[in-house]
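As the work plan foresaw, the team has encoded backbone shapes as discrete tokens. One protein thus recorded appears below exactly as we store it.

:::
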Amino acid sequence: MKSTKRTLQFIMVLGLTGLLASHTFAGSPPKILLVNSDATVEKYQIPQKTFQQTLSFPVVLVNLGEKKWRLHEVEELVYDEDPDLIYTIGSKAFLMVHKFAGKTPIVFSSAVNWLRLPVTKHTYGVSNELHSGMEIMLFRYMFPHVQKIGLLYSWKYTGKWFKHAQKQAEDMEMALVGEEIAEDSDVLENLRALRHEIDVFWLIPDPVLLKDKERLINILKVCDSLKLPVFSYHKAFIPFGVLFSVSVDIPTIGRQAAGIATQLLADERPEESVQFPAGSYIILNLKKAQEYGVSYNEEALDSVNTIIR
């Protein structure tokens, strides 16, 4: 399955390359302004690199991490450059640029929970979250004995997503058990109460749930004390005892953004304004699985990118 996944990603890259090659631009090449929240951060640096490598024309680069930018400086930047398209990487870049873009199309990526962003009909992008149905399918494939997956969510940010994911889980004969939380909720007590109803806990990127690092660490500590396996959306949580992580494949994000940009510059509207990431990166903490006594599908190990033993 790993070779199949790599083949599909390779085909996708070839498709993007073909898309770029099939478009020609009359006169001078289009002008793209790329605004990065912080180009020294790997998760922002890599999409910038693959975006530039995929495109065949120059890009004006702005790194907001180099200094403290004021709003009027960003406004002047957008006005002076007068780009045909803006690509923003990270939430900070999008939030600082979007109000000055006018009708100029913006393509965003690497923004956690993009539904929080003030998007318009001129906004396009690549979600930082994978398709929930695909993730649930991977959970089922890797851990066939898991039947009940629990999570904490806020209605404001992930309520609609939860209802949709719950239906997808039902279609796969699994149960997604959710507990709604608010800003003032005692999430650790919510988690303890949920423990008796679920087999694993799914940590999702909800800004109310993960409002700060301290809460995140406490959530993972409680899960460990309860011997409750955790599925997560980012590899950074693996050292804290997370059992299974399915995250986006970061290089693919930049290529997808380049594909969207190419379509827009050719006056072609993408079928979906915001696309799910095309690639994923899977990590299995086998050491934690053995500690908790969690059974897994050994035939599924070929689909895992990294195994922690």
User: Anything to note?
Assistant: The two ends are 21 Å apart (CA to CA).
